[in-house]
Specification:
With 237 residues, the protein is of the alpha+beta class. The protein is 35% helix and 20% strand.
Length: 237
């Protein structure tokens, strides 16, 4: 015969898990707020990967963020352009919802649409993966949640053969270095740009916004994969 367990016993059993969740959530608020300020939402904590990416010197905007006049140049460790609402209080939010990333190229791309949408899905997946370290990520927008919107505005693969050559030998390496000095991007390497905004899920109030661009560095690791630099940029964000 099944014996009912007293509610008091259930409460005592569940309490340690509840307390642990609350501690994790408070820890997440502290760490998460710091990381949002460092990037806005894409939690630029840096993951050791196959290829090292570098921040470009400038980013071309796409229109996704609307009013770009409120954005300011980011400090070291932040996005190239960033806005932080001085009234934002992240301690009042209980969860984070990440919208499906959209593709909004700032310039005409030769990359097939299917590939771009696959990359956008990969970007969202990596953002969720990183956020889960400190936040409760929910599958749909709920009351009391932060809302994150992402746009992939540039994604170009590296030229695999020339990437290897410019990594190892001059004069290709000299050409790549010259372009880097002039534009902040390396020749032959992959690049990716992302714009993102963080809003109150209830009111739509803008809390943060950012635009950033990253390019592949000069290492052999990952040089055989034309999209490696782009994926590494996603992991950095």
């Amino acid at each position: 015969m099944k014996k009912d367990i007293p509610k008091s016993t259930l409460n005592r059993t569940a309490q340690p898990y509840r307390d642990n969740w609350e501690r994790q959530w408070q820890r997440g608020l502290r760490l998460g707020e710091l990381r949002f300020i460092m990037w806005v939402l894409l939690v630029m904590t840096g993951i050791v990967g196959c290829a090292q990416t570098e921040q470009a010197r400038e980013v071309e905007t796409s229109g996704f963020l609307g009013d770009y006049s409120i954005l300011q140049p980011g400090k070291e460790g932040e996005a190239l352009l960033i806005y932080k609402n001085p009234q934002a209080d992240f301690s009042v939010y209980q969860a984070v919802y990440v919208e499906p990333a959209i593709v909004l190229m700032s310039r005409k791309s030769k990359v097939p649409q299917e590939e771009l949408h696959r990359l956008a899905d990969d970007l969202r997946s990596k953002v969720i993966w990183k956020l889960k370290e400190d936040f409760l990520v929910v599958p749909k927008l709920i009351p009391g949640a932060l809302r994150i919107e992402l746009a992939l505005t540039e994604a170009e693969p590296s030229e695999v053969g020339m990437d290897i050559v410019s990594t190892i030998l001059p004069p290709a390496g000299m050409v790549s270095g010259a372009k880097s000095l002039a534009t902040g991007t390396q020749a032959f390497v992959g690049r990716a740009s992302v714009e993102a905004k963080l809003t109150d899920g209830n009111t739509g109030t803008l809390l943060m916004a950012a635009a950033d661009r990253r390019v592949g560095g000069r290492t052999l690791d990952g040089s055989m994969d034309s999209w490696d630099d782009v994926h590494q940029a996603f992991e950095y964000w």
